[in-house]
Structures are given as C-alpha cells and as structure tokens.
Design goal:
The active site is at residue 61. It is an enzyme of class 3 (hydrolase). The chain is of the alpha/beta class. The chain has one domain (3-229): Uracil-DNA Glycosylase, subunit E (3-Layer(aba) Sandwich). The protein has helices at 3-9, 16-31, 43-47, 84-96, 109-113, 138-150, 163-172, 201-213, 226-229, and strands at 34-35, 55-59, 116-120, 125-126, 157-161, 180-184. The chain starts with a helix and ends with a helix. The relative contact order is 0.17.
Length: 231
C-alpha cells in the first residue's frame, strides 16, 4: 500500500471486520484463483497518493476474467481488449474533448498518476465469479478510503456512476458545499444510453477544478490519447 494511504488507514487494519476479511481472502486463495494479483490489490494507493487525489471514480467489482483486473476500477492492461464500460468512458471523454483519440488499450495508469482515484468498492474477486467477494468487508474498508478523501481540506470531484456508487457516496456523507458530486447512469453497455453518454462529467469536473484550484488543478483527460502515445 502507498505510504500516504497506509498512514491514513492504519487504524482499520486491526478492526474485527478487516481481520475477518484477511482470513477470508487467505482461505479463498487456498482453493481459488483471486483477481487482481496480490501485488495489485492496492495499486490504486501507490499510483494516486492521498494528497494528490483530484477526482474519485468509484467502481463496484474487479474484472473477474484472466488478464483483466490490476487494481484500478475500469482499467485493464495490454493486450487485454478494452471492456465495454471503458469504451463508453472513452466515448464520453471524446464528446467533452473532441481532440481526444481513444487508445486501443485500457490502461488507466497515466490518469491515476495525474490524480484520478480509480477505486472499486470491493478490491478482490474470485476468478469467473462476479461479486463473489462482495459483502465480505471490502466495502467497509473502501468507505474509509473515501472518507479519507472527503475529510481533506482540498475539494475534489466524486463521479458516482450507477445507483450503487451513488448510494455509497450518500452513505459517507460527502459535503457537497466543499466537494463536487457528479451523478449519472453507469457506463456499462447495458445502461450507458440511459444517462452516462452525454453527462459531460469530464468537462464539468475540470470546470469545477479550475474554478476552485486554478489551472494546475485540472485533469488532462487527453493524456491517454493515441495521438500522444501511439497506441
């Protein structure tokens, strides 16, 4: 775990729910493949330091097929094909920033390093079994992650896509006078046309960040563009 997060979350590690969660994960690993790999469960914390968070994007469950999950919500590493939800995220970035040329890969690491916290509500999953680790304690832990961000003096943007993410944001009590909460449908191909596509979230986030923190506070959403990276 990244040092800023380890310090902020240190009180959680000895709590009964987290001790029980660790035992559950250990037992699961004895008879099942678990994603992401053990060294990637907390990759979000190493790529996006607590004091560098500008935008929070909350997912639900890690991808559960081979070669997909690597610790960032919605992100996959090459050569894995870009998932449908991420394709729609790319579509919306292009709508907000027409010069964006969607890449052929799904690695969101550059945006994580730029201050976008790609966090899943549950941090592990059994291979080929969606939501198999939900309700085991991860949600309590990741709520504490979100509370760490919420308590910071510096305002951030929370993007809550889909009802589960919106309920999580409501439960932690985000102060919407200090932070910006953007809500819409989920980018999944099953729901994107019900309000995700056309939500202008990437443009709206930067407008708010620029107004509150100046030009240095915005996110360069086009950092992934294939015209920059030849991918």
């Amino acid at each position: 775990m990244g040092p800023t997060w380890f310090k902020a979350l240190s009180n959680e590690f000895d709590k009964p729910y987290f001790v029980k969660l660790k035992k559950f994960i250990s037992t699961e690993r004895q008879s099942h493949t678990i994603y992401p790999s053990i060294d990637n469960i907390y990759s979000w914390s190493r790529l996006t330091a607590l004091d560098n968070v500008k935008v929070v994007i909350l997912g639900q469950d890690p991808y559960h097929d081979v070669g997909q999950a690597h610790g960032l919500s919605f992100s996959v590493l090459p050569p894995t094909k870009v998932p449908g939800s991420l394709k729609n995220i790319y579509k919306q970035i292009k709508t907000d920033y027409p010069s964006f040329d969607p890449p052929s890969t799904g690695d969101l690491t550059p945006l994580a390093e730029a201050g976008v916290l790609w966090l899943n509500a549950s941090l592990t999953v059994r291979a080929h079994a969606a939501a198999s680790h939900s309700g085991k304690g991860w949600e309590e832990f990741t709520k504490q992650v979100l509370r760490c961000v919420e308590r910071r003096d510096r305002g951030v943007v929370f993007m809550a896509w889909g009802l589960p993410a919106q309920k999580t944001i409501d439960r932690i009590g985000v102060d919407e006078k200090r932070h910006l909460v953007l809500r819409s449908a989920h980018p999944s191909p099953l729901s994107a046309y019900r309000g995700f596509l056309g939500n202008s979230h990437f443009r709206l986030a930067n407008e708010w960040l620029r107004e509150n923190h100046g030009q240095e506070g915005v996110i360069d959403w086009e950092i992934l563009s294939s015209t920059r990276n030849n991918v």
